[in-house]
Amino acid sequence: MGVREGFEELYGAVPEGVWAAPGRVNLIGEYTDFNEGFVMPLALPHTAVAAVSRRADRVLRLHSADIEGPVVELDIEALVPLSDTGWAAYPAGVVWALGQAGHVVGGADLHLASTVPTGAGLSSSAALEVVTALALNDLYELGLTGPELARLAQRAENDFVGVPCGIMDQTASACCTEGHALHLDCRDLSIRQVPFDLAAQGLELLVVDSRVKHALGDGAYAERRAGCEEGARQLGVSHLRDVPYTGLDAALARLSDERVRRYVRHVVSDDHRVEQVIALLDAGDVRAIGPVLTEGHVSLRDDLRISCPELDLVVATANAAGALGARMTGGGFGGSAVVLVESADVDTVTKAVAEAFAAAGYTAPRVFPAVPSAGARRLV
Ligand code: ADP
Ligand code: MG
């Protein structure tokens, strides 16, 4: 049953509209966002789809086809940040964030379903937030732009749900376009669409979901972040973004702490890799980004140290089986990897990774193509 039919069955009326917002995967630029550097995500074909109608009162009714349970009913006036309402905190948080920013939104009935895998590092949460934000923007004629909706969605996740994420996920979901990756400058939040038409080149970008999430990752984000801040402090810059790649060796020589040196080397070199990838894509040389992706993985594995045996196995096996390049993507310690591969080699590489996982006794990975897809949009 589609979301329209689901909506009618739940609420007894036809929805005013249907909207979609995608999950995302990051091509290159990891742990660079909070250093005010560069990231380069693309939207996935997987989307959260929401059927929504306005209400005359100040009530929110929220339902997900993917979650067992009744309709969640909330009073907009009584929304309290960090009050645990489970999954409904994501769409409710968007309504709260809109209100905090002074936008007038009334009640709404919402029913959604999503094909974005949850917890695989593909940002099912941002898809949920952005689809809600776009639907309300259209229905209540708020006139907000994609980047503005992304900021509000991030605010919902940071302050209402209580998850300290950067701006990449929501910006990707709101602003990506088909056949492109999105270059996002995390300092001024400017964006640029970079051509990334894989099909025209006879290429595929595979997402390999390792199906693991190691508990080790719990405090690691904060630790890496603190280490980067320490590096910036010792180098006398506000953020590591300000350390030029050409001055990296000189900067490293000024750092006494081996751990901080590794973190700085990762961040500054990954910002540089984003610029390399952009130059190659602008020149139409898509295959040449493969080795840059693999260098990015080595940096995440050896310098930032946020990879894990499963992700390392994906990258090593895929490259040995003929992939053009591969890297882990996202926060690390599990989640997914991206693999750039000739279309003709997809089956060989997929099979090699599956066999390597079986031989190692790991849960079978989930593999699918990351077709660079459209950002959030109205469907009906
Ligand atoms: P991800 O990396 O997928 O964004 P998060 O932990 O940030 O992982 O977000 C996952 C959470 O988002 C889920 O636990 C759930 O609360 C919510 N969510 C995602 N998809 C759905 C859905 N289809 N229906 C309801 N809630 C969802
Ligand atoms: Mg998330």
Q: Regarding quaternary structure, how should these chains be classified?
A: single chain
Broad shape: globular
Structural class: alpha+beta
What's the CATH architecture name of the largest domain?
Answer: 2-Layer Sandwich
| Binned strand content | 15-25%
Number of domains: 2
Bound molecules: adenosine-5'-diphosphate, magnesium ion
CATH topology of the largest domain: Ribosomal Protein S5, domain 2
Low-confidence stretches: none
User: C-alpha Rg, in Å?
Assistant: 21 Å
Mean pLDDT: 97
CATH structural class of the largest domain: Alpha Beta
What's a quick, concise take on this entry?
This protein has 380 residues and is of the alpha+beta class. It contains eleven helices and twelve strands.
Describe this structure in words.
This protein is of the alpha+beta class and 380 residues long. The chain folds into two domains: 3-194 and 374-378, Ribosomal Protein S5, domain 2, CATH 3.30.230; 197-369, GHMP kinase, C-terminal domain (Alpha-Beta Plaits). The protein is built from eleven helices and twelve strands. It has helices at 3-11, 89-100, 124-139, 146-161, 168-175, 220-235, 248-253, 258-282, 289-304, 309-320, 346-360; strands at residues 17-28, 38-55, 59-64, 72-75, 107-114, 180-185, 191-195, 203-213, 325-329, 334-342, 366-369, 377-378. The strands form two sheets. Strands 1, 2, 3, 4, 5, 6, 7 and 12 form an eight-stranded mixed β-sheet that branches. Strand 3 (59-64) and strand 4 form a beta hairpin. Helix 2 (89-100) packs across helix 3 (124-139) and helix 3 crosses helix 4 (146-161). It binds adenosine-5'-diphosphate and magnesium ion. Residues 64, 66-67, 87, 90, 114, 118-119, 121-125, 128 line the site of adenosine-5'-diphosphate (ADP).
